[in-house]
Design goal:
- With 579 residues, the chain is an all-alpha fold.
- It has one domain.
- Helix content is 76%, strand content 1%.
- β1 and β2 form a beta hairpin.
């Protein structure tokens, strides 16, 4: 009989579930805005230590590890969901809360269970080969648990600052959140979104990646848009005219670039796929993982459930599990080498969508039902791959701190379950308040996923623009540069790229682990306040002070934004002074 013990306590479960919901909702909002999410492991570990060891004086390192395991599962599930489920909405299909729950739960369960036979080899046998950067860093934070209370204040400082800033700018409208400038005559546009979350994400990404994203943004908004405006004869009177060109032309070029970038990332991972598949061990002997009978039984239940709950045929369900296992294997291995931020989940999902859409088209299935089934297939695969990457990092953390693998695997399943219960409501709320696919919630990956399915089955996508974007990404790759960040910048409005670059600059000159915690707090505070404001919008509550966007209000916004950056400098000064 499986015993829970002191590692897997009720207080750890409750706190982990609460943090999973918080970080899951925050990452859903962030991912829909800029197509990127941030890891919740280290912030969750720090908050856990502050509460369990700081306030309750009772937490252990293993309990804190369970908390971060559950919490990070929520973040990774949200990533898988926002990459795919909004595509169903963009296709004009019904993505109900029930549908989102079932897809999330099944994808999450597959991600955890299919990782079980891989764990021993990847986490233990390859310990000196696969560093698992996020998992190793989180283990170091947990080992330094006595500093938890000290470090946690930076998370809460960022959380408070980000939330207040967002409320003043977006709810009260004391200042404009996205100042910009139209360069007349040249027909270019430069702007910056003042959202604290983007500043924090840029800090976490670092200067190199944020620079590549900005390069893509500048390519779109200072090169391609002026050229299109010039040769198409568009009369540019205001910035809205340039945004119209971006929406109708450059966005598709960016989508093609992201598509090629994702496929190239997947191609680079081919050797890891083959190696991982060749080293799978289905051990039925004594193991510290979930018993293989439980794993196989769980997979059998999932295969039977998919035809009943999702409308997939039995054989399509079998094919889905095969695809999921393939991408779980590559996801679990590649995050061990380059970390979760470079995990090509979107590329894997695009490949799965291409395969299943071509299969449906060859069978003469091109109606809306076929598109819905294809997106269901891709969503489950995407969520499974995202969860597997997170599970791998968490299991590496557990291995380094002496945790019990099966307890962590159960913790992952708990995180999946509880976030799956709420993520559908979060999507509905955000769509009602901001509209998925709009400038406020551009949903980059989901847009591309919908275009892949619709393009294969109906042929309505402007392939000239898509192919142009793919060619741009290929040229970038031939120059020896990772094309995916450039492609993301090309796809997004330029005001989202500039604050990432500012955060990257701060990271380059003021890099410190406490700064990363502050940045994580900014992301969480801004994103969660965005959800609160969305609730107010849906309820019809208007808190605007209706202050004109004047010179004074612009100065207030600029000074407030600078104050967020000053804290980074103070944190760096604290490090130099040895405190």
């Amino acid at each position: 009989m499986l015993m829970i013990g002191k590692e897997f306590t009720l207080r750890a479960i409750v706190l982990g579930v609460l943090l999973a919901v918080v970080f899951g909702a925050a990452n859903a909002y962030l991912g829909l805005r800029i197509g990127m999410t941030v890891s919740a492991s280290i912030p969750a570990a720090v908050v856990s230590m502050a509460i369990l060891r700081g306030l309750l004086r009772r937490g252990t390192i293993l309990e804190n590890n369970i908390v971060q395991t559950i919490a990070s599962a929520g973040e990774s599930l949200a990533a898988g969901v926002i990459f795919t489920i909004p595509a169903v909405i963009l296709l004009g299909l019904d993505a109900s809360v029930y549908f989102t729950f079932v897809v999330s739960l099944i994808g999450g369960i597959l991600g955890v269970l299919l990782m079980v036979p891989l764990r021993k080899h990847l986490i233990e046998d390859e310990h000196g080969v696969l560093p698992y950067p996020e998992g190793t860093a989180c283990a170091e934070v947990l080992k330094a648990g006595e500093e938890g209370g000290e470090k946690a204040k930076f998370v809460f400082l960022g959380f408070t600052a980000g939330g207040i800033f967002k409320f003043l700018g977006s709810a009260l409208r004391l200042f404009g959140m996205a100042p910009g400038m139209l360069i007349r005559g040249y027909n270019a546009y430069i702007g910056i979104d003042l959202s604290p979350s983007l500043l924090g994400v840029g800090y976490i990404l670092g200067l190199r990646i944020s620079s590549l994203v900005l390069a893509g943004g500048l390519l779109g908004w200072t090169v391609l848009i002026p050229l299109i405006a010039r040769f198409s004869g568009v009369s540019v009177v205001s910035a809205d005219d340039l945004f119209s060109i971006w929406s109708h032309d450059v966005r598709f070029i960016g989508a093609g670039a992201v598509l090629m970038g994702g496929l190239v990332s997947l191609g680079k991972s081919a050797k890891y796929i083959l190696k991982a598949l060749g080293q799978v061990s289905l051990s039925f002997g004594k193991s510290r993982d979930l018993p293989m009978a439980y794993v196989l039984g769980g997979l059998a239940v999932v295969i039977v459930a998919m035809p009943l709950l999702l409308g997939l045929s039995f054989w399509l369900s079998i094919l889905l599990v095969v695809f999921a296992f393939l991408f779980v294997a590559v996801s679990s291995r590649i995050v061990g080498i380059v970390g979760s931020s470079s995990n090509p989940v979107s590329g894997m999902t695009i490949a799965a969508l291409f395969a299943i859409s071509l299969l449906f088209a060859a069978m003469g299935m091109k109606d809306t039902k076929a598109m819905f089934l294809a997106m269901t297939f891709g969503a489950v695969v995407c969520i499974a791959a995202a969860i597997a990457g997170d599970t791998s990092q968490d299991l590496k953390t557990g291995y380094l701190v002496g945790a019990t693998p099966w307890k962590q695997q159960v913790a992952e399943l708990l995180g999946v379950l509880f976030v799956a219960l709420v993520i559908g409501y979060v999507l509905k709320l955000l769509d009602a308040a901001y509209h998925i696919g709009s400038r406020d919630l551009s949903a980059p990956q989901a847009t591309i996923m919908s275009m892949v399915v619709k393009g294969v089955m109906s042929g309505t996508v402007p392939w000239v623009l898509i192919l142009s974007g793919m060619a741009i990404a290929l040229v970038v790759e031939l120059l020896g540069v990772d094309s995916l960040p450039v492609a993301v910048g090309l796809y997004l409005p330029v005001e989202l790229s500039t604050p990432l670059f500012v955060g990257g600059l701060l990271s380059h000159f003021l890099r410190h682990d406490d700064g990363t915690l502050y940045a994580s707090g900014l992301v969480a505070g801004d994103a969660l306040m965005g959800i609160v404001i969305a609730i107010l919008v849906v309820l019809g509550v208007n808190l605007e002070l209706r202050a004109d966007i004047s010179v004074l209000s612009s100065m207030i916004g600029a000074l407030s934004y600078i104050s967020l950056m000053v804290i980074f400098a103070l944190i760096a000064r604290r490090r130099r002074n040895g405190r």
